[in-house]
Amino acid sequence: MKPTLVARDLMSAPVRTIAPEATLSAARHHLQRYGHGALPVVNEIGKLLGLISRRDIDIAIHHGLADQRIADHLTAEVLTAQVDEPLEVLHQKFVVRNIGRLPVLDGERLVGIITRSDLVRGLLQAIETTENWSTRLQKHFAGSAWEHLKQLANLADKQKIQLYLVGGGVRDLMLNRPNLDLDLVAEGEAGAAIALGAALKQEDSTIKLQVFEKYQTVTIQWPDHVAIDIATARTELYDQPGVNPKVEHASLQQDLYRRDFTMNAMAIALNGLQSGKLVDHFGGKQDLENRLVRAIHPNSFIEDPTRIFRAVRFATRLDFSLALQTEHFIRRSVSNGLHDGIGGERLKTELAYILQASYWFAALKKLADLDALRCIHPGLKLTDLLENQLNTLEETVSKLPKLRVASWQLRFERLLLEADPIIIERFRLEQQANERIQLTQQKRSAFEKFSEQKLEIRTIHQLCHQMSNEACLLLGSALSTPRQNGLYAYIERRMQLVPLLNGNDLQTLGYKPGPQLREMLAALMREQLEETLADRDSAVAWIGRHFP
User: Fold this and answer.
1) Domain check: are 34 and 164 in the same one?
2) Residues 245-293: pLDDT tens digits?
C-alpha cells in the first residue's frame, strides 16, 4: 500500500523570499532574475507575513512607487498549508480558492511552497503504480559502487538529508550503458553535501574527501578507486553567456531545471520513504524512449552556448535526433552573433570531448549544419577543402608512430588557424599549441609562393627542417591537397630516417659546437632525404667537401 502523500512530500524547498523592508523595485528585480510570479515576504525569524505578486509590483511602480516598502503593498491574508497536511486537503484548497501556489508552514515558519505543477504530480503519483528502480540500481551498480551508494544513503537518513542519483547515471541506467561517473544531489539545508561528506569522513577515515565550498560540492574517493560527486541541490544564474554561473541553494526541482537536457534532468531517490522512486519533471524518460535530445527551457543555449556542442555530442554519440524545438532554439541562439568566437575553458572542454571521439567528423558536420562553428570563430565553415584537409591529417597521423601531440589536439588547432589572435587567446591554449599555430600561419604563406609542381623535397626541407613533426602536420592541414600530400610524404620519410651522423660525430671530426652544427645536420638530413648519401662514410666525405 502506498504511503499517503503530505505537503512535505510535494513542496519545493528552500523558498526564495524577501524582507518586508525591501523596496518594490528590489522585489521586481528579484522576480525577473528568478522568473517567479510572486514572492513570499518573511520576517527575520522566517515567519510568513504575506505575498507580493509581480502584477501588484508592476502596477505600483507604474504609479511611481518603486521606492516604497514591500510591507505597505503585500497581501497579508494568504492561504497556507502545514507540512503534514494530506494530499486531498491540499487539492481541495487549490480548487476552492483557485490559487497558483500554496506556502507550506511548520508552525509559523515558512519551509516550502507547492505549485499547481507539484499538486498535479502528486495526484498522478497517488493514482499510478510508480515503477521502483531500486532493483535495477543494484544490478546496474553491482559490486563496491552499490555498497558505497548504500553507505551514503544510510548516512543521509541519519542526517535527515534526501539523497538522489542524478544526471548521466540515471540516463545510462535507463539506456543500459555502463557509467561509473556517479553524481548525487543532497536535498536539505544549505551545505547538505558538505555535511554528508564530513559525516562520512568521520565514520570512514579511509576515504579521500575534497570539499568545494564555492559550489557546495564534495568529491569522495574510496580505496577501491570508486569516486562519487555529491552536490547540494542548487540553481545557477548566468550573468553573461558562456561564463561560469553563480550558484545558489535550491530545491531538487530547481536543481534539475538548471540542467541542459531532459534526459540529464532525472533523479532517483536513494533513501527515505521514496527510495527507488524516479523523479522526472520534464519527460526525460519518454525522450530517451523516443531517442530525442530536448532542451529544458528556451533560453538554455543563450545562457550557456557550450550546451549547443553538448547537444550535438549526445545526439551523435547516442544516435539520437535533436527535438525540432531544440534545433530551433540552437539556430536562434547562434543567428544573432551573440556567441561568435566566445572561446573559454568550457567551450574548449566540450570541443575536446567531441574531437577525441570516434564520431568527431559527424559531430562537426552537424555543428556546421546548425551554423554553430561560428562559436569557435565567426569565419569558420566546414568547406569541402577543410573536410579533405582534416581527413587527410587523420589518415597521416594514424600511420605515424610516437607523435608527442594527439591527433584530436591537431584537429582542434586546425579549426583555430584562421581565427583572430584575440579569439585564440580566449581558449587559453598551452604555449606549444600557440607556437604551432603561429608558426603554421607564418609558413603557410611561404609554401603558397611556390608552384605546386615545383614543391620538391629540397624546398620542403629548407622551409621545415627546424619545425617539429607535429608543427609540420598542422601546417600540412592548412595547405591545398597537392602541397599537403607533398609535406606529409616528407614527414613520413623524415621520421623513418636514422641520421648517419649526429652532433657528437661532427665534434669528433673537429667541428665546434654552435649554430653551424645545426646547419650541417639539416644539410645532411636533406641529402639523406634525397637519397644522395648511402652510409656513414659517404656522409663524412660529403661534410668534408661542403664544410671544409
Assistant:
1) no
2) 666 778 888 889 889 999 999 999 999 888 999 999 888 999 999 999 9
223: which DSSP letter?
T
Boundaries of domain holding 465: 337-496
User: Strand (E) positions, 131-190?
Assistant: 162-166, 182-187
Cα–Cα distance for residue pair 260/297, rounded to 1 Å: 9
β-strands 81-82, 101-106: how paired?
parallel
User: Distance between CA 231 and CA 123 in Å, rounded?
Assistant: 29
97 and 152 in a common domain:
no
pLDDT digits (tens, 9 = 90+) for 317-371: 999 999 999 999 999 999 988 899 999 999 999 999 999 999 999 999 999 999 9
Q: Are 180 and 154 in contact (CB under 8 A)?
A: no
Closest CA to 165 of 143, 149, 145: 149
Rg (CA), the chain: 31
Using 50, 70 and 90 to split pLDDT, how confident is the model at 390? very high
The pLDDT value given to residue 179: 80
Residue 2, domain member (yes or no) = no
**Closest alpha carbon to 404 in 456, 470, 477:** 470
What is the distance between the alpha carbons of residues 526 and 539, in angstroms, rounded to a whole number? Answer: 11
